[in-house]
């Protein structure tokens, strides 16, 4: 049975698309058939981050409207086997994203995929609500910063009340915290919320801490999910995150103490 | 002065203040959220099951709504029963 995972946050620009791309890539690298869907209708970006923007012919909305079939719209990743991307429409408006349409596509994908990753747009409007409605699990991407944490809490409330699982009284959506753009040295100085602070406020389990890293921008420039950048701290953090998601019990790296040594080695310390 | 110089001096209580403010606002907002509590969907489902033991109705015929005014909470329950003939014909 396929698992649907939404990558969500409420607040914009916190790292949802970066996380969706690396998470889906990591699952596929480990042998699971994985599809990653861009729900950001009108502002698609996942194709750029995955480096397949020039191969987009049909999109999610075309499939919903029966203008193309799923196989025509799915883009097969050239680097990683088992990985497929379903791009968002750049031209339609969000109203095209109907619950029935999304359900139809997810049901069809579930026939042949193990994991379906839904990259949510920012906000709490239609696109965001549709991306989380059918979710079995949620990666809540949060930055250690007041507005992001507050918005994440808001999203947790929506997952608990407006997802299909909530509406049908099924077991609730399983929630995982992804703390992104973490800068341990700033948390140490008391300038930035620490991992423990965010965990205490949100009260959900921590799946991974992704350090603030220049490699993320570089890999997005190149259209390569950062998890494929071997030797990079953010890539390693995403790799650990995927392993943890699949049940491995790995200690969190890139937190306060270890990170310092690691950063020093990486940048010669300053 | 670069942004990092600004943060470097003196050791700050900035994060502690952020945490305190967040704890207050999040607790407050979670309180408000209870005006549409998480248990409502399940309550609705279970009610539907109970009523169905006696009268055939479907999901759309049952409406559950919680209203809050100050300290007072009102749980409003609205069940539309089918017509008499329909009921008899389904017996
Ligand atoms: N760990 C990180 N370190 C440094 N920069 C990062 C990190 N994660 C994300 N970024 C940067 O933050 C910006 C926003 O990232 P991304 O597009 O993944 O966010 P998003 O949540 O999908 O945004 P939107 O809400 O607009 O969809 C990008 O420029 C990205 O390179
Ligand atoms: Mg995005």
Strand content of chain A: 15-25%
Helix content of chain B: 40-55%
Globally, the shape of chain B reads rod-shaped
Structural class label of chain A: alpha/beta
Low-confidence stretches of chain B: none
The oligomeric state of the chains shown is: heterodimer
Rounded radius of gyration of chain B (Å): 25 Å
Subunit structure (chain A): Interacts with MinC and FtsZ.
Family (chain A): Belongs to the ParA family. MinD subfamily.
Protein name (chain A): Septum site-determining protein MinD
InterPro entries (chain A): AAA_dom, MinD, MinD_FleN, P-loop_NTPase, ParA/MinD_ATPase
Quick recap of the structure?
The complex is a heterodimer of chains A (270) and B (91). With 270 residues, chain A is of the alpha/beta class.
Give your account of this protein's structure.
- The complex is a heterodimer of chains A (270) and B (91).
- Chain A is of the alpha/beta class and 270 residues long.
- In chain A, 44% of the residues lie in helices and 16% in strands.
- Chain A is built from 13 helices and eight strands.
- Chain A has helices spanning 16-29, 46-50, 60-64, 70-73, 99-112, 126-133, 146-162, 164-167, 184-188, 195-202, 214-222, 233-245, 256-267; strands at 3-8, 34-38, 75-76, 83-86, 115-119, 137-142, 174-182, 205-211.
- In chain A, strands 3-4-2-5-1-6-7-8 form an eight-stranded mixed β-sheet, sandwiched between helices.
- In chain A, helix 1 packs across helix 12 (233-245).
- Chain A is globular.
- Chain B is of the alpha+beta class.
- A two-stranded antiparallel ribbon of chain B has the order 1-2.
- In chain B, strand 1 (62-69) and strand 2 (72-79) form a beta hairpin.
- The radius of gyration of chain B is 25 Å and the shape is rod-shaped.
- The N and C termini of chain B lie far apart (83 Å).
- Chains A and B meet through helix 7 and helix 10 of A and helix 2 and helix 3 of B.
- Magnesium ion binds next to helix 1 of chain A.
- Adenosine-5'-triphosphate (ATP) is lined by residues 9, 12-18, 40, 121-122, 180-181, 210, 212-213, 216-217, 220, 234 of chain A.
- Chain B: InterPro entries: MinE, MinE_sf.
- Chain B: Belongs to the MinE family.
- Chain B: Keywords: Cell cycle, Cell division.
- Chain B: This is Cell division topological specificity factor.
- Chain A: Belongs to the ParA family. MinD subfamily.
- Chain A: It holds the Pfam family AAA_31.
């Amino acid at each position: 049975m396929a698992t649907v995972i939404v990558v969500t946050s409420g607040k914009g620009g916190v790292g949802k698309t970066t996380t969706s791309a690396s998470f889906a890539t990591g699952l596929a690298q480990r042998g699971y058939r994985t599809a990653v869907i861009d729900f950001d209708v009108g502002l698609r970006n996942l194709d750029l981050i995955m480096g397949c923007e020039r191969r987009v012919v049909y999109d999610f909305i075309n499939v919903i409207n029966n203008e193309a079939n799923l196989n025509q719209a799915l883009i097969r990743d050239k680097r990683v086997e088992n990985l497929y991307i379903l791009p968002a429409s750049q031209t339609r408006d969000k109203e095209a994203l109907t619950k029935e349409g999304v359900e139809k596509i997810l049901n069809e994908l579930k026939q042949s995929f193990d994991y379906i990753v839904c990259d949510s747009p920012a906000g709490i409007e239609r696109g965001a609500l549709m991306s989380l409605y059918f979710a079995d699990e949620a990666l809540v991407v949060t930055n250690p910063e007041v507005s992001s944490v507050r918005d994440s809490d808001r999203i947790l409330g929506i997952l608990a009340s407006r997802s299909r699982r909530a509406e049908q009284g099924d077991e609730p959506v399983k929630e995982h915290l992804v703390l992104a753009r973490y800068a341990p040295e700033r948390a140490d100085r008391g300038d930035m919320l620490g991992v423990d602070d965010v965990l205490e406020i949100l009260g959900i389990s921590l799946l991974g801490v992704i350090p603030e890293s220049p490699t993320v921008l570089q890999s997005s420039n190149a259209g390569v999910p950062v998890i494929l950048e071997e030797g990079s701290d953010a890539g390693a953090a995403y790799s650990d995150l995927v392993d943890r998601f699949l049940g491995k019990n790995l200690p969190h790296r890139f937190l306060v103490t270890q990170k310092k040594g690691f950063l020093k080695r990486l940048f010669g310390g300053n | 002065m670069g942004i990092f110089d600004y943060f470097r001096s003196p050791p700050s209580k900035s994060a502690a203040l952020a945490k305190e403010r967040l704890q207050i606002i999040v607790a407050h907002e979670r309180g408000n959220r209870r005006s549409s509590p998480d248990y409502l969907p399940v309550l609705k489902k279970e009610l539907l099951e109970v009523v169905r033991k006696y009268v055939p109705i479907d999901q759309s015929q049952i409406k559950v709504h919680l209203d809050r005014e100050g300290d007072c909470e009102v749980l409003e329950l609205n069940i539309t029963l089918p017509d008499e003939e329909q009921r008899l014909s389904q017996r």
